[in-house]
Every structure is written in structure tokens, then in C-alpha cells.
Amino acid sequence: MAGNSAGETPGAPAQKPKAPLPKSRALVNEQTAGVYARAWEAHERGEPVGWSTAIFPQELCETFDVPVLYPENNAAAISARHMGEPFIQHAEGEMKYPINICSYARLNMGMADKMRKAESIQTQGIDPAMAPPAFLCLANNSCTQLMKWYENLSRNLNIPVFFVDCLFNYSEEEPAAHKIAYVRGQIENCIRQMEEFFGKKFDWDRFLEVQRISQTNRVLFNEIVALNARKPAPMNGFDLFNYMAPLVICRGKESTTVILTELKKETEAHIAAGTSTFRGEEKHRVHWEGIACWPNLGHNLKTLGGYGVNAVMNGYVTAWDVAYEPGDLDGMARAYQVSSTNSLTTPGIMKKRIASIDRFGCDGMLCHVNRSCKLMTFHIMVGREMIEEEAKVPVANFDGDQSDTRVFSEAQFETRLQGLVEIMSGNRNKNGNKEARHA
Amino acid sequence: MPDAMPELEEMLFELGEVASHPRRMLRQYLAAGKKVVGCMPVYTPEELAHAGGMTPMGLWGGQVTPSLAGKYNPVFTCSIMRSCLEYGMSGVYDGLGCVMMPMLCDTFRGMSAGWRAGVKAIPLVPFIHPQNRTDPGAPAFLTEEYRVVRALLEKHMHCEITDEALEKSIEVYNAHSAAMRSFASAANEHLDVITPAIRHHVFKSALFMPKEEHAARVLAIVRELRKRPTHVWKGKKVILTGITAEPEALLNVLAENGVAVTGDDLAQESRQYRTPIPEGGSPMERLPMERLARQWFDRRGCSMAHETRAARGRMLTDMAKETGADGIVVCLMRFCDVEEYDYPMIAAEAEKAGLHCLCLDIDQSTRDNGQSRTKIQSFVEMGM
Fold it and tell me: CATH no. for residue A121?
């Protein structure tokens, strides 16, 4: 199929005036703004603010009631607003970080250095602007680059790191007892170190409550995601990227329960009314693999929509499904070792993807070969055969990056998508449409 | 080899041959009925394989343009892992009984999947080092992890690895590390003989020989060097840091420009030998598996071992001062993110110490060193 030289996608819906945000989205925005505001207020009072990796046991700081911000989440937001480049340039230029390291890290370390020198970046029009950290929380369950990134932050800012080394499950079986014991021991040790650093006793009753809230929230999110197995889907799958923030930055808060309850209600209302946040006809359903191309999210969304493709499900948003029984510290230690699929073997991940391709009635898989995420890309390259052979759906890759705008090519994305659509259409003509199990 | 060749040069030549022909060494071991275990870089507990009567061989890839590995390797995979997978998939590593692989970085995590998919005939023995090295539970974790490695080696190689044999192997490895440190020191008094490439041969050959044999050769070389009068090197001197300083042609460019190597922090070379396996204090710590595990916690200044107050920059500037080096050459393996994160710290420490710092882009497969040649020439011309 020839490329569309005009840059328009066939069948793209006409521009409509922007609809008001659904209540759940407004609540997300309010919650995020509140988290940043609270961190700045604490900073201005001279109280410690933490920066944390995205899948650190948030239950600890939540129990201590200490504000925490999340650089990965912040980098995604800044990148989606096209504000990341000056920080990336600063990291590569003045700071001498090579171009090959993770772009979230380059963005954040560049920002941290500018903050250190200018005291505050609030005046530079950056939104959302992170309050400077007094400590760091590091869990390497997404990748090992996080460890190097936080080493550098710690050294450059001269602040301590609370570290939970979550290992890597290089074999397919469940984490062995010695792995669970090591991670549990680290969590307990972190609590002791934090008690000393914050000058507060750890409230184990409150911890149990935070664990319960965290479990309620993750279950709610899973239920919402599961609703998208409905055919046609009640949500544009990309909406899930927008609702990750509450799970990442406020997984242990009741405000997240409120947001997710509202979102579930809205999604069920769409199902009842036969409507969807996906605009146009849902001709194809695909499974998205990998982090979003945040700077190109709008383009991706529009192009997918133009071809009637709804990325109904993606594996990335399930990384915060940290499932354990409240009160079971061994279970919590295990959960932080396995919730991020980056912590698992490729066959382990692909089993999950194959199951979800089936469950969500996907006709194909679209994989983001993310220049910043080596590990996810390895999984895609090795796992592709498994998906094609076992799920029997076509797989297409495209090159991109989560923050660095120099990698993604609009033309390549569309060409790869066109190829995928052609194969999916051909398969549909041969086999008939797949039915979603949960329709 | 000519009969008249002096003993020192002969021994250096021999180690150069070993360093340049690992495949030939593998064939020799297999022909002699040895059981050979592949050891991926770096900090693989090859003492376990040695204690089981096996021959451990380092797998450090080579100068090859991959044609098969691209199926499972992203284009942004470091050249060592790319060439290792290529060799695995193309049969060069056939005959290895199994391969030990540490999960030290994201590429290794990915490679564990790539290896299993692409090299089905050679079983993988993966393991992971604990990175929270100050956590009280970390030593017990690593000891247990090594027990799992030991059990897998016993299973795949049909052998037994006893504590007694391991104790003996630990002594062999500690003696070898000490021999390598002696060589590094003696080499600096004879930079006319020990060129950058010869120095590299001595270190690299250790990866492909039984350590007791290699230590004997190296100590003989040290004795021969010490018999000779000290040479006063008039040219420039540098410290090398990084994963490897390969391909070898790069080292020849240094020599051609009158630059000698007086110390290194290369993962392929001295980084492996500067930390002895500790004796241990308590009776429990003196058990061989405990001792083997505790070595990891004594390692300093390595990009693959987590430390927030990174010692590496200062370690390099101290090494430069001690050996009279004029500068630090960062051999930055392309797409090696753990090293890339350390580079700004090294450059800053070098600048603070008033040392010149040169960064070379390392790709094992490259056959054109033009860019590095130009950088080295400018580095020397600018007075370093």
C-alpha cells in the first residue's frame, strides 16, 4: 500500500470541537496537581520530598506520610507536552551524558542539574515542575538503568538512596525463597533507615491500611482494563495511558479509589449506551507493546484512529498490578519482583501477552521498539516469534522513543501500521472476526 | 617459533597466540577430553567450574559482523553481546557444556532470552548478583544464588563440586589474581617491551587458559622482566578504563603515537584481579561458598556494581598519579549503558585532578579505527 503523501489518514474523522473532559480525567488532573503542590509546600517548609522510581514499594512513604514525586511519570508528562528537549540537550551537552542512555534519565538528570543551579524551575514555565528531592527511592524492577540513573542523582545532588533491589526472574518459575527473603529483608531495612531519616516511627497499622487501599486500587484498575475486552471496546485503549498516573503516583491513596470508581462507572455507562471514547468505527483491535511514544502520542492516536485501529490493551499499564494479601510482607516482596513484566523472562511475558491477545480479541500486535528501553526491545525481538506462532496474530514493530523526539518517524509508523492493517484485513477475510471472550 | 627467540619474548608470543585464538584453545581442550564451561563477562564464579574439574573459558565475543544475532538483538546491543550471540548461533561455541551468564545489565537480561531462543544446544546457567550491596541480607542471598549455580553446573556437566575442591580453586584464583597484579606493576618498569598490545595479550590470554597454568607463565614473565634494567619511558602514559580496549588495532594506534599504558580499569583486564576472594572472619564466613560470594561486596569502582558514592573517578585519578600517567582514556563501549552513566563522573574527576581525558568509541566489530586514530593523534599533539 502506498504511503499517504498528504499526511492524512484515510477515513480520519473530521475535526470536532474538543469535548469536555470526563469527570474521571478532571479528577486525575486535580490529583496530580495536588501531589505536586503538596511536595512544593513541604519543600518550602524545609521538609523532605522524595523522588522515586515508578514501581518502588510506595506503601512505605505513604505510611510515613512523606511526599514523593516520580521522575518517570514526570518525564512522560513533560515529553507529552514537548517540553523535554532543553533538559535532554543539557544532559547530553554540559553534563556529557551519552545519547544512548534512557531518555527519561537524560531528561530528569538534565532537569535536576538545572534545578540545582537555578534553585527552582517553577519560573521556567515547566509543567509539572518537580520540587527538589531530599532523598531517593530506588527499585530496579523495571530495568538496571534505573539504578545507574539514581546513582548519578544521588551523587550529583548529594542525597541518600533507599534501595530495594528487586532482582530479575531469569527463569520462568516463581521467585525462589532466597529471592523473596532478600527483598523482604530490604523492605524491612528500608523502613528502619527511613525511621531514622524522617525522625518518625513507622506506623504498622497505617501500613496495613495503605496496603489495603493499594490492593483495592489495583483490583479496580484491573476491572476497568478488563471492560475493554468488550467488542466494540468502550474505551480508546490509549486512554489507559492517561489513567496510569493515579496508580503510579498515588497507588496507596483513597483519592485514587475515587477516580477509578468514577472511571469504572463512566466505562460501564459507555457499555450500557453502546458508545465508546474511541472515535469512529473500531475495525481492528490491536495489542500495544511497550511504553507510549509520549511526544508523539497525538500523532499515534490520530493515525491509529484513521485506520480504525483501537489499541484496546497494552502490557505496560499492567506493571502496577502489584498483587499481595495485606499484612503478608513476603507476598509484597514477591509482588514487587514480578509485577513489572520487565522483571520476567521473555516466555513469561509472552504467555501473559498471548492470554491477553486472546482475551481482548486482538487481531494483531503493534510493538514500540523503544530506543530508550533496551530490555523491552529484547523481549519484543525474542517474543515476536512466540506471539506469531502461539497467538497466531501478525506483529509489526516501529522505532520510537519515550521522550527523545529524534528517533520516531511518522512515515515509518504509518507504513508499519498500514502493513499490519493489510495483514489483519486479509486474516479477517480468511478466518472471520475474532470474538472477544468478554463481549 | 624460531629457536633463538629469547625466553621472555617467546612467552609473550605464546600468550599472544592464546589471546588471539580462543577457538583454537577450545578445540584443544575438547580434543583432550576436557569439559569446557563458557563464562560470560564479568564476575562469573568460574571457581565453581574449576573446582568441578572443568575448564572455564571466557566468552568475550570477537571481531565479527553479525548476520544471525540480529534476529534477537536490538541494533543498540553492545558489540560483545552481539558477537557472543552470533558465535553461539553460528556454531563457533559448539562443544561448550553450558554457559554461565550474570544478569549485570539490561543487555544481559535480554541476552538470557536471546541465548535460549538462538542457542538451544548450549544450556544457560543464569544467575544474578545482588546490587544492594550494603544490605545485611545480600551476602546470604548471593551465597544461595551460587549454590544454585553449583547445582546447575553439576547437572549439566555431570560432575561434583565439593567444598574441599572449591577451597583449593579459590587459592588458585587468588594466586592468579596476585600474579596479574605483579605483572601490571612489573610491566610499568619495562614499557619498551610491554607495549599496549602485549600488555593486553597477557591479560586476555588469562580468559582462555587454566588459571594455574596462566599464573605460572605470568610469574615467569615477571621474573624475566625484573632481570632486565628498568626502562625509562620518554613518551606519554595513560590509564585505560572501560569494558575492553579492543579491537587490538586501537592499542597499536596508541603505540604508534608513543603512548604507553601504565594501568587499567578494564573489565576484561585488571578489574577482575584487583579484589581478592576474602579469607573471611567468622567460621561461617570462612566457608568456601561464603568466601566466593563475599568477593562481590569488596569490589569497588565498577560500573556494574552499585555504589552511590562512586569510587571509580577517584580511583582512576589515583592510579594515574601513582603510575605517572598523563591522562585517562575512556574506552567507552558503544551501547554499554552502565559505562555510559559513569562517563561524566570520570571526565569530571579527571578534570579536577588536572588530567587529560580522552573518550574513544569502542565497537569490537569495527575494522576502521580512523576516528580513534585522529582522536589519539590530537590527544598527543595537544600535549595531553
Answer: 3.40.50.11890
The number of folded domains in chain A is 1
Q: Is the dihedral of CA B312, B318, B321, B322 positive or negative?
A: negative
Asked if residue A386 is part of any domain, the answer here is no
Of A99, A45, A104, A100, the C-alpha closest to A73 is A104
C-alpha distances out from residue A272 to A229, A234, A269, A276, A438, Å: 14, 9, 5, 10, 14
pLDDT at position B366: 82
- In this complex, do B137 and A164 lie within 8 Å of one another by their Cβ atoms? no
- CB-based contact B319:B346 (threshold 8 Å): no
Range of the domain at A87: 23-206
Candidates 3.40.50.1240, 3.40.50.11890, 3.10.290.10, 3.40.50.300; CATH matching B7-160: 3.40.50.11890
Q: Is B360 helix (H, G, I), strand (E, B) or coil?
A: strand
**B352 has a chain A CB within 8 A of its CB:** no
Low-confidence ranges of chain A (pLDDT < 50): 1-12, 435-439
As to burial, measured by CB atoms within 10 angstroms (0-12 exposed, 13-18 middle, 19+ buried), residue B2 is: exposed
Chain B residues with CB-CB distance to A159 below 8 A: none
Number of neighbours of residue B151 by Cβ within 10 angstroms: 12
Q: Got the DSSP string for B162-189? A: -HHHHHHHHHHHHHHHHHHHHHHHHHTT
Across the interface, of A189, A374, A381, the residue whose CB is closest to B106 is A374
pTM confidence score: 0.94
Is A88 within the bounds of a domain? yes
What are the per-10-residue average pLDDT scores of chain B (384 residues)?
66 98 97 98 97 98 93 94 97 97 96 96 98 97 98 97 98 98 98 98 98 97 96 96 95 96 98 96 91 97 91 95 96 97 96 95 84 88 73
ipTM at complex level? 0.95
